[in-house]
Design brief:
heterodimer, A: about 475 residues, mainly alpha, 2 strands, about 0% strand, B: about 450 residues, Rossmann fold, Alpha-Beta Plaits, six-stranded parallel sheet
Chain lengths: ~475, ~450
């Protein structure tokens, strides 16, 4: 382990976090609701610590996969911990664990909250929650790669550990260029959404908050009733469309810009993702029309919003789906596990993994019928390597294992099983609201401190797709000489 | 520049490493995902799995926006087709590795018909390099500039030499001012020396000058130069073929030991004048029975580094005058040097140097090609030959008035047939070939050697 390099990189990460607090500082100055000082203090702490760590002299700049994973895991933990400072200092969230929960929820783009009254909070603090979302969506370390000079080849390990998907890669030769392109697409799409929301009559502040929440598929709102508070079909439609857009693999946008429109439309993951959305909407409309909603239009409006919000793991709500029929609820819970595309800002297990798992099942069935047939699993006409396939199967199990373990710990709180299980999956898949007491109308405030800590960890585990955090618990990972 | 490399073998990887270090955007195409993984993990390049001949894969690699494609797969034919396809798809420059002697003879035709801008033949280049070393045995390394009019010779300083513990300026006064010591390799460092620099025992010095002057200088400082008249080559591969051709031109007798009977038969046909011996070159008995201790030089160029090393050490042990070994794994050069083998050649390094030279030339703003580029001790320093354009920025100004950047040494100016070892009052004229030695810098244009800010 190259500890010096790891801590030096952590220094850079903290400095970037400090810079990212500046917009929130400005917002707090504009509205002057007494939270300015909390940002100033937090920035000072971050800068002094970050610059201090950056002064570490490294013996060698070489990092290997394990160092990359350590940087990502520790980076995310420290970003979440230090991101809680403004909440604590301003007194918006007085308890340490609660502040950590809120911060982890913000950075991991979960959007689960322990705050009952959002509208009473200072605007700077609320802005910080959403801006943290936005940062966490594309990734703090990807941002570091994009803006810091002297990016070396082996930073790819960092990007691979942070980006979601079974085999994240570059789409241009330079890693730095790849990171820049990712952020450019991200910034432009977010800006476009802000403009659309402004056109719909949403105030600038609210537009920014909701655009950040959508772009990162996070789901924090500045209104207690989330997007439902606006009661506007236009705003809901815009947010629905953009939620779905941000659930698409960003490399497809690059291919699209490059003019490979055909290959984008033929992309199997995109088709699977959109197909799942369509089928889920149809089934739930069918199920809720007449029982919950009296008109078909209303049913389509609320269903499509809720489905998009859940599958992209955003977590905005315009309707309380805890009151929907069990069939609809079951479908939504399944969508929670699936999530959106790899290489997007969304959480969950990702469509591509589910799609490949189905293909593996198909292969097994064919193998039983034709035992001597040679079968390869292909995606977009390309053979997927066996190593990636077994990685996906292991990931699936690991996901379920983390889910199960967390459910067991959280169930000690003695809440009902639906609330417990959906609270865990809502955090693990970075969605936010679940069912029962953690539904769109509820929040996570009633859980015990242990549960909140476990759920906070779940969020980061889910965001980093399990392994980086899991590695932290492996004793040999920490040995200077790995044996 | 955007560069596509097809074939992630030893040469492909090495090229990708060097080109990406020089800030080019490199995409590698290969069929083997295992090889690609190594490149992906260690280099800042993009890797695409697939066949480099396929249009689809080439398009995916962004062939339309690429400036250069280098085809370096194991197969000459694939390389040719690949370059041809890429040219059709709009790539500007193509380089193919073609190494089969059968093709090598029709190279100019192939180049024209396939639109190849450059053909590299690592084996031939290696053969030429070894031949040069045999021509001038004291040298660890011989590099050529200006079509052979200037040479750069690396020599190890031993205790018996007259220049030990002398300052460079005194050496120039006492022996010869028509050669220049352009770089010194001491320990694991390369130094570009000035007049006050003192030569020590065990330094490797790089002498630059006209071949005859370098020769004279070497005899003056006490190096005994023995002409080699017979050479034993171990390993009858392609390098052996090309090397033998070069050696026969120099009237040197060649004995080749080859382990494969079929290849031996082929060689007897390809090289009728050479003595082909069927046997294992690592077998000491065989070597002694073929009286290899009487040989002027022993060259170990089998495909296995280990065999080459063992046999080279064996030859050194039996006091063969000049021992040369081919090594493919780059990282070992330092260790090998300490073993006492006279010269080590690395086909990869030679090839990479050729291609870097070409690529730098492409980047050159004036379109001035780079005539030669050699790297000294890995990547620490470079010797590079450029043609001066008509730019008035540096021409006709006495060198002492030009503020040349630190770490750059003007080693020689070649004007038609005269070679000038430059001094303060000399000038660069348009059309001159200028030989530079640089450290820690990437130079692709003569304009870049001058510090403009402090000049004004």
């Amino acid at each position: 382990m190259n500890y010096r390099m790891i801590f030096k990189s952590l220094g850079s990460v903290l400095c970037i976090e400090a810079v990212c607090m500046v917009p929130s500082l400005l917002v707090s100055i504009i509205y002057s609701q007494g939270d300015t000082i909390s940002f100033l203090l937090s920035i000072m702490i971050l800068v002094s610590l970050g610059l201090g760590l950056r002064r570490i002299k490294t013996i060698t700049n070489n990092i290997y996969a394990r160092d990359g994973f350590a940087i990502v895991a520790l980076g995310w933990l420290s970003v979440s911990i230090f991101g809680a400072l403004p909440f604590l200092i301003s007194g918006a969230v007085p308890s340490v664990i609660d502040a950590l929960f809120e911060s982890a929820s913000a950075f991991s783009t979960t959007g689960a909250s322990i705050i009952r009254e959002i509208e009473g909070l200072p605007k700077g603090i609320v802005f910080w929650r959403s801006f943290a979302h936005w940062m966490g969506g594309m990734g703090v370390l990807v941002l570091m790669i994009a803006i810091l000079p002297s990016v070396k080849a082996n930073t790819l390990h960092i990007m691979k550990a942070e980006s979601p998907g079974p085999d994240p890669g570059k789409f241009v030769p330079r890693i730095k260029q790849t990171a820049k392109i990712l952020y450019t697409i991200y910034v432009i799409l977010t800006a476009v959404q802000v403009i659309f929301l402004l056109v719909g009559g949403m105030p600038l502040y609210d537009s920014l908050i909701h655009a950040f929440g959508t772009a990162s598929t996070g789901g924090f709102s500045n209104r207690n009733a989330s997007v439902g508070a606006y009661g506007s079909v236009y705003i809901e439609t815009i947010i629905t469309i953009f939620m779905l857009l941000f659930g698409v693999n960003f490399s497809l946008y690059y291919a699209f810009l490059k003019g490979n429109i055909k290959s984008v439309l033929r992309d199997e993951e995109l088709r699977f993702y959109l197909g799942t959305v369509m089928i889920a909407i149809l089934l739930i409309v069918f199920n809720t029309y007449g029982s919950v909603f009296q008109s078909l239009g209303e049913s389509i409006r609320y269903t499509s919003f809720q489905v998009s919000s859940i599958i992209t793991t955003t977590g905005y709500a315009t309707a309380d789906f805890t009151l929907w029929p069990a069939f609809s609820q079951a479908l939504l819970v399944i969508l929670m596990f699936i999530g959106a595309s790899a290489g997007s800002t969304a959480g969950g297990m990702k469509c591509i993994r589910i799609l490949l798992l189905f293909k593996i099942i198909k292969r097994e069935v064919i193998k039983i019928i034709h035992p001597r047939s040679v079968q390869t699993v292909k995606i977009n006409g390309r053979i997927v390597e066996e190593e990636i396939l077994s990685g996906i199967m292991t990931f699936f199990f690991a996901y379920i294992a983390v889910f199960t373990a967390s459910v067991i710990i959280v169930s000690l709180d003695n809440k009902d099983l639906v609330s417990t299980a959906t609270a865990v999956i809502a955090c693990l898949s970075n969605i936010g609201p679940g069912l029962g007491i953690v539904g769109p109308a509820g929040n996570f405030a009633d859980f015990s401190l242990t549960s909140k800590a476990v759920l906070s960890l779940c969020m980061i585990i889910g965001r980093l797709e399990i392994y980086p955090i899991l590695l932290l618990f492996a004793p040999t990972f920490w040995k200077r000489v790995n044996m | 520049m955007n560069i596509i490399i097809v074939g992630d073998g030893k040469i492909g990887y090495s090229l990708a490493e060097n080109l990406s270090r020089e800030n080019h955007n490199v995409t590698i195409i290969d069929k083997d995902s295992e090889a690609l993984r190594k490149a992906e993990e260690n280099l800042d390049v993009m890797c695409i799995k697939g066949n480099g001949v396929s249009t689809k894969i080439l398009m995916e690699a962004g062939v339309k926006d690429s400036d250069l494609i280098i085809a370096a797969t194991a197969s000459d034919e694939i390389n040719m087709v690949c370059c041809l396809t890429a040219k059709m798809l709009g790539v500007e420059h193509t380089i193919a590795r073609i190494r089969d002697p059968e093709y090598a003879n029709e190279l100019s035709l192939l180049k024209k018909e396939l639109g190849l801008d450059m053909v590299i033949n690592p084996e031939q280049a290696t053969g030429r390099e070894i031949a040069r070393l045999i021509k001038f045995p004291p040298a660890i390394n011989v590099e050529m500039f200006a079509k052979g009019r200037v040479e750069m010779v690396e020599i190890n300083v031993t205790k018996s030499m007259a220049i030990v513990d002398m300052h460079l300026k005194d050496i120039a006064k006492r022996f010869s001012s028509s050669v220049l010591i352009g770089a010194v390799h001491r320990g694991d460092q390369v130094i570009i020396p000035d007049g006050e620099f003192k030569i020590k025992e065990n330094d490797s010095i790089y002498i630059i000058g006209q071949p005859s002057k370098v020769y004279d200088f070497c005899t003056l400082i006490g190096i005994y130069i023995q002409k080699i008249s017979n050479v034993m080559i171990m390993g009858g591969g392609r390098i052996a073929y090309y090397l033998t051709k070069y050696l026969e031109e120099m009237n040197i007798k060649v004995k080749i030991i080859e382990i494969d009977r079929v290849r031996c038969m082929e060689l007897t046909e390809l090289l009728p004048h050479a003595l082909i011996i069927y046997g294992d070159g690592t077998d000491e008995e065989l070597l002694i029975s073929e009286n290899f201790n009487e040989m002027g030089a022993f060259v170990a160029i089998t495909g296995r580094d280990e065999d080459n090393l063992i046999s080279a050490l064996l030859a050194k042990h039996h006091q063969v005058g000049k021992v040369i070994a081919k090594i493919n794994k780059l990282n070992h050069t330092d260790i090998i040097k300490s073993l006492g083998i006279d010269s080590v050649v690395n086909p990869q390094l030679i090839t990479v140097n050729y291609i870097l030279q070409y690529v730098r030339g492409l980047q050159n703003a004036m379109g001035n090609s780079i005539n030669a580029l050699y790297r000294i001790v890995g990547n620490q320093a470079e010797a590079i030959e450029l043609t001066a354009g008509n730019s008035a920025k540096y021409t006709d100004i006495p060198l002492k008035k030009l503020n040349i950047k630190k770490g750059i040494l003007l080693a020689a100016i070649v004007r038609k047939n005269t070679i000038i070892i430059p001094h303060g009052n000399d000038v660069i004229k348009p059309g001159d070939n200028v030989i530079l030695i640089t450290k820690d810098k990437i130079i692709n244009d003569l304009d870049n050697i001058i510090n403009w800010e402090s000049n004004r």
